[in-house]
Write a structure and sequence with these properties.
Elements (H helix, E strand, L loop, with lengths): L1 H7 L2 H84 L13 E3 L3 E7 L5 E6 L4 H10 L3 H10 L3 E8 L3 E6 L22 H6 L10 E2 L3 E3 L5 E11 L5 E10 H12 L6 E5 L5 E4 L4 H9 L11 E6 L2 E9 L6 E7 H48 L1 H14 L14 H89 L8 H29 L8 E4 H10 L11 E4 L7 E4 L1 H17 L6 E9 L2 E7 L22 H4 L8 H11 L3 E6 L5 E8 L8
Parallel strand pairs: 16-18
Antiparallel strand pairs: 1-2, 2-3, 3-5, 4-5, 4-9, 6-8, 7-8, 8-9, 10-11, 10-14, 12-13, 13-14, 15-17, 18-19, 19-21, 20-21
GO cellular component, one term: plasma membrane
Main location: membrane
Membrane topology: Multi-pass membrane protein
Length: 709
């Protein structure tokens, strides 16, 4: 009986019992805590992600509204630029002397005291010249204004937002160009005899601009009874002659309906949101149709006036939270606003987050229950199995170790008072020696394998580096190609478009016969511009692809550069700009191609002349340093913005167009100069002077042995 009791209290039985108890209880507790912690963290994460998503949406919509304000501002700026351009031309026209006696325009009298001339144009366009008085000087002024007809037609065709553009005489006469027949006025219902331009608000707005004040004013929105009650706003500017006398007003009408169709309805097309436009006085200019009802409720729920609204804010209207985004249009001071329900914006995110939370919670609960039940069942079965089978496997394992342990083991373990573990220890001692032998062989095999893997890895690394270099080169070439195509298209399109416009105007008879020669000269100038650009492109392509091989000959640097500068020494060449040489000379001999180096010098001197004011100096000098002969050209011009200096040698790069829009050039001269200097193994650089202007330095090595292939 004692023997059986001792067998029931063996070490194996006690270990199995404590293992069962020690594994089940922590597993159950950890399962419960894990589920609660996971749910809490997931709920917190969902809330934080929802807040982050809302902030990202707000930032996205603010950015989008800013972009649309820029679009509207750009469209309005186009119209302002058109009015300013026409005003400038008009003032030049009306400042000309009448000694050549301008012939008065012929008008036909119709009823209601109106004198009219109607001219249908291409498509739906037309021209109307009309006056409420039969005056000779009014007709002459209208005749002068007809010289603006090509510009009127061009601006209407170029800008789809302009409904009509016209000249207004101070005594009630008009030269009116329109892009559509829908503005033909109902002349029979208007008392033309009592018409006064003083009653036109946009005419009075234009008179607030003083002579020599270059700006355009926008009228408040209004319904024009003379144009079938079209709701519109007008940009206008006065015309003064050289004596400061008012000669009329030039104006451009913009249909608010068309403006909404072209801008708001295109850019803001969410069916649950709408956009609207407020004037400087915060009165409604226009609104999308779907937002008219909601806008009234939104205005009533404002705690303050529209003056207090700026950027992003939230408003309550009709039981909903509205997200209101506003931005001011710089050119007019108008306010563009966009309204979207907050629930609609975040509904998809909130719904998906809620569904994901519920599904995750259910999944965690099911998972924890299944894991706990499975662990309990496994532990119970394992305990029973080990309880009943542990002695038999140990005995089998002992016999297996004895059979395997016929080899020589060098590692030994101490014996144990327990019979089973004593046998296991002896078996392990024999087995460890065998494993040592096997491990030695395995290590040797691993070292051989690692050597082969290292060789293959190095080979693959070299191939990968070569492939990466090829990919980067292809990307660079593709970027270069796209940039060139874009620049070439732009620089060829501009002169060709201008020339085509003059040709079309001549063919359509819009240019008087006595002025045709002047416009043909302009066309020739544009064609010469295209020819020069194509030649520069061809030369640059040959230089960059290595198809031009310089003919290098020994040249005395001082005499060579002195001869090149001689042809630029005439002060009448460039607006009395004087070319001066500073003291200093070089007796070094350089290896150079006379033609190519001459082109570099011409490009640098030409740039200095073009960007220098009249009566200024362009100073050049020669110096030697560190095995190089340096040609230094310094001007007193407008200089180069510091941020533009790293890019001035790039193809087609020209500094801010507002600074040099009147200065001709293709943007390739400095690029060609850089390529020629690289062919000669030389350098070229530029920097701004401390006082005014900039300095270009071209360096030529004494012994030009290595050149770029």
């Amino acid at each position: 009986m004692r023997f059986k009791l001792r067998r029931n209290r063996t070490l194996a039985a006690q270990i199995l019992l404590f293992m069962l108890l020690g594994s089940l209880l922590p597993l159950i507790i950890l399962g419960v805590l894990n589920g609660q912690t996971a749910r809490a963290h997931f709920n917190l994460y969902s809330e934080s992600q929802l807040g982050l998503t809302e902030a990202q949406y707000i930032e996205l919509y603010e950015t989008y509204l800013k972009e649309q304000v820029n679009v509207i501002n750009a469209e309005l700026q186009k119209i302002e630029n058109a009015v300013e351009d026409i005003r400038a031309v008009s003032e030049a026209v009306f400042s000309e002397s009448d000694k050549d006696s301008v012939a008065p325009v012929q008008l036909n009298e119709i009823k209601n005291g109106l004198y009219l001339r109607f001219v249908p144009l291409e498509g739906q366009s037309f021209q109307q010249l009309y006056s409420v008085r039969d005056s000779e000087h009014i007709k002459k002024d209208l005749s002068k204004s007809m010289s603006l007809d090509p510009i009127f037609a061009s601006e209407i065709k170029r800008n789809p937002n302009i409904l009509a553009i016209y000249y207004i005489h101070p005594e009630g006469a008009f030269n009116y160009f329109s892009s559509t027949m829908k503005v033909i006025d109902n002349r029979d219902n208007i008392d033309w005899g009592n018409l006064s331009v003083g009653n036109l608000p946009y005419y009075q707005d234009a008179l607030t601009i003083k002579p020599n004040e270059n700006k355009v004013v926008w009228s408040k929105p209004y319904e024009d009874v003379a144009s079938n009650d079209i709701y519109m706003f007008t940009a206008s500017a006065p015309i003064y002659d050289q004596e400061g006398q008012l000669r009329g007003v030039v104006a451009a009408d913009v249909s608010i309906t068309d403006f909404v169709q072209n801008i708001l309805n295109v850019q803001f097309n969410d069916e649950y949101a709408y956009a609207f436009l407020l004037g400087k006085d915060h009165r409604l200019i226009t609104i999308q149709n779907r937002g008219q009802t909601d806008f009234a409720r939104l205005s009533l729920n404002l705690s303050t006036s529209w003056d207090g609204i700026d950027g992003y804010t939230e408003l309550k209207a009709n039981g909903q939270t509205k997200m209101l985004f506003t931005k001011t249009v710089p050119s007019t001071g108008w306010m563009l606003a966009y309204v979207i329900p907050k629930e609609h914006l975040l509904s998809a995110v909130t719904k998906s987050s809620r569904e994901l939370t519920n599904q995750t919670n259910q999944h965690l609960i099911k998972q924890n229950l299944l894991i706990t039940l499975a662990a309990v069942v496994i532990c119970i079965l394992l305990s029973i199995f080990l309880w009943r089978k542990i002695s038999r496997p140990i005995q089998s394992l002992k016999n297996a170790f004895i059979d395997v342990g016929n080899g020589n083991f060098s590692v030994s373990t101490n014996g144990s008072p327990f019979h089973e573990f004593d046998h296991l220890s002896k078996t392990f001692n024999r087995m460890s020696e065998r494993i040592g032998e096997l491990m030695g062989a395995q290590i040797q095999l691993n070292e051989e394998l690692e050597g082969k893997v290292t060789e293959r890895t190095l080979a693959l690394s070299d191939l990968n580096e070569e492939l990466q270099l090829r990919i980067e080169e292809l990307i660079r070439i593709e970027g270069w190609r796209k940039k060139w195509i874009s620049h070439i298209s732009h620089d060829l399109k501009t002169p060709s478009t201008v020339a085509q416009g003059y040709i079309d105007a001549i063919l359509d008879g819009k240019i008087p016969a006595d002025q045709s020669e002047r416009y043909l000269v302009k066309i020739e100038q544009r064609i010469q511009t295209i020819t020069a650009l194509v030649k520069d492109l061809n030369d640059l392509s040959l230089l960059e692809t290595g198809q031009i091989n310089p003919i290098l000959i020994p040249i005395d640097a001082d005499d060579f550069f002195e001869a090149l500068m001689y042809k630029w020494s005439d002060p009448l060449t460039w607006r009395d700009t004087i070319l001066v040489r500073e003291p200093g000379q070089s007796r070094a001999t350089i290896q150079a191609d006379e033609h190519l180096v001459g082109r570099v010098v011409d490009n640098l001197v030409s740039n200095a002349m073009k960007y220098s004011p009249s009566q200024s100096r362009v100073v050049w000098s020669i110096r030697e340093s560190n095995g190089f002969v340096y040609l230094v050209i310094k001007d007193e011009g407008i200089g180069i913005p510091e941020e533009a200096i790293p890019y001035i040698f790039d193809s087609f790069y020209r500094v801010d167009s507002s600074r040099n829009s009147r200065i001709p050039g293709s943007g390739l001269g400095l690029t060609i100069a850089r390529e020629i200097m690289l062919l000669h193994g030389g350098t070229i650089e530029a920097f701004n002077n401390p006082d005014a202007g900039c300095t270009f330095i071209a360096g030529f090595p004494f012994n030009n042995v290595q050149t770029r292939s």
